């Protein structure tokens, strides 16, 4: 993880996650093992992304901007809960080797499209504006220091 702008790092992670999800969608009716592998990497990656935001980025932005209650991070946290529900719905189908997760996937894509756009156009650039270079370095270090067990979970366990 470099020390470039938060917006660059997090937009690149969005793109990486989108590619994994696309692989899952393309493979789920052809090669479920490959699809499952892509989904697990996607799920863990998205959960890590959310933990980074909620544990590290959002508190720093709220502190520096003075906008905690009722601000954009509150909306993002609410959407993160919806994203988590969608992930679990797809996960249950993947666990059962059931490729019929199109409805769950569409719900997730719909939420993520709007969510990511708000983050990329508004929140990430705002974070970049309200933090210093030193704070950015501290944020990246704090993200590295988060233990994997905080985000490498499926249905409450570390198993895929």
Overall description:
This protein has one domain: Four Helix Bundle (Hemerythrin (Met), subunit A) (Up-down Bundle). The chain is mainly alpha-helical and 160 residues long. It starts with 5 loop residues before the first helix and ends in a 15-residue tail after the last helix. The model is unreliable at 155-160 (pLDDT under 50). The chain has helices at residues 6-27, 32-65, 72-95, 102-130, 133-145.
Short key terms for the protein model shown above:
160 residues, mainly alpha, 5 helices, disordered C terminus
Can I get a quick summary?
The chain is mostly helical and 160 residues long.
The CATH first-level class comes to Mainly Alpha
Number of self-contained structural domains: 1
User: How many distinct beta strands?
Assistant: 0
CATH topology: Four Helix Bundle (Hemerythrin (Met), subunit A)
Ends distance: 25 Å
Instruction: Give the helix/strand class.
Output: mainly alpha
How does the overall form come out from the CA principal axes?
elongated
The biggest beta sheet is recorded as: none
> How much helix, percentage-wise, in residues?
over 70%
Low confidence ranges: 155-160
Instruction: Please state the CA-atom Rg, rounded to the nearest Å.
Output: 16 Å
Count of alpha/pi helices: 5
What amount of the residues lies in strands? under 5%
Residue-averaged pLDDT: 91
Which architecture does the CATH hierarchy give at level 2? Up-down Bundle
Q: In sequence order, what are the helices and strands, one letter per element?
A: HHHHH
